Amino acid sequence: MLNYIIKRLLMMIPILLGISFIAFILINLAPSDPAEVALRVNEIIPTPEAIESMRQELGLDQPFIRRYFTWLYNAFQLDFGKSFIHRDRYVWDEIMRSLGPTLVLALSAFLFILVISLILGVLCAIFANSLFDYLVRIIVFLGTAMPSYWLSLLLVWFFANYLDLLPTSGYGTWQDLILPTIALSFVYIATYIRFIRNNMLENMQTYAVFYARSRGLKKRTIIIKHVLVNSLHTTITALGMTIPQLIAGSFVIEYIFSWPGLGRLCIFAIMNRDYPVIQAYILIMAILFVMCNFIVDVIHQHLDPRLRENGGIS
Fold this sequence. Notes:
By secondary structure, the chain is mostly helical. The protein has helices spanning 2-29, 34-41, 48-58, 64-76, 91-126, 131-145, 148-162, 174-203, 207-214, 219-231, 233-248, 251-256, 262-271, 275-303, 305-309. It comes from Orbus sasakiae.
């Protein structure tokens, strides 16, 4: 197990370096001069002298490789420079300010996904091919096909405009959290209900379940100990990767509901060509995805002895 962890950690190094390089070259692939962009977003006339002065201030007059390694060294120290929009604010401070609301929304959505998917997935497997199962599967189909932004607009229209029950924007109360949580988690709920249902129906046909029935065990015991537990391995893997997806993929939801999180910060950075913020966001989200994938693989290998016997996940 220790050898597997060390191997995976060593494999992460070139992946993260490659991602950092891609994030850095974005500023060099931009169609406009970053120095000119920095001047324009601060409402400064981009004269040749001002552009040259800004290029020196941003270090753009240095060779490409030197700038990359300087940026990478500073990034290891959590120093991503200053925002183009707010010249007096550091990018890391802006990210930390927006991270809290995003984590609150992601955690709320994750718990909602976990509870609803587990309950409905188990019930659909127990009452397979019943009216309840068909109705849930129809909802699952709609949830998979419906874009999150369209669902968000429907929720705003129905609960906020038509019923006047919930706020359409804001941050700070539990009412503000309800609509963005539903909109963010709906497509994942549809996916995991299908995962849990299909895995449980498959495990119900195994010899272990037939043997448990022949021993006279209660149906509830068979469902929980022999079917559900063995059906959650692939679901745990998918749920682990859902965490970074909820954090990184919430920008549309945050923008629609005016949620002051990382996604909204990234959208405004893209609209205003705030390259330091965009670079930091890409790098941090990539690290989050890689780390969550590593943690999920380790947990998966620990839970499944067949993977340990085969030397780990390939």
